[in-house]
Amino acid sequence: MNEITNGLQALVARDFQFAHPRDADGGLVAVVGIRVHRGVFDIVQLFSEHEADAARIPGDEPDVLFPSKVLWRTTGPAREVIAELLALSEPAPDLGAQPTGCWLPTHAGRSTWLAASA
């Protein structure tokens, strides 16, 4: 197995949920993973082996794919982005409400993250 596969398996073990958005022709656009924990969203988007990004976003952010506030962000090759995300320290326990949401199918082969409203 390669570093990217091992990294993705490590993210799944940390409770990341993945979606695979597709274009209108059914082609894979990205692999997108989100983990909701301790009052934040951690998100990773893999566009290719050489292009990826990851971010930690406050739990009250309504649009996790295009956030207005970011607590941490990195971009670069997929293996490096995954490694940085795995090395990111856990946030301090949040005593407030936990963010929640789910992947919601929008069209054939497409989905979006729908944050639950309070």
Can you walk through the features of this model?
It is built from two helices and seven strands, in the order αβββββαββ. It has 118 residues and is an alpha+beta fold. The protein has one domain. The strands form two sheets. A five-stranded antiparallel β-sheet has the order 1-2-3-4-5, with helices on one face. Strands 6-7 form a two-stranded antiparallel ribbon. A hairpin with a 2-residue loop joins β6 and β7 (110-115). The longest helix is centred in the N-terminal third of the chain and has 11 residues, at 3-13. The radius of gyration is 14 Å and the shape is globular. The termini are far apart. The mean pLDDT is 83.
Structure summary:
The termini are far apart. The model has no long low-confidence stretch (mean pLDDT 83). By secondary structure, the protein is an alpha+beta fold.
What attributes characterize this protein structure?
118 residues, alpha+beta, 5-stranded antiparallel β-sheet, two-stranded antiparallel sheet, 7 strands, globular
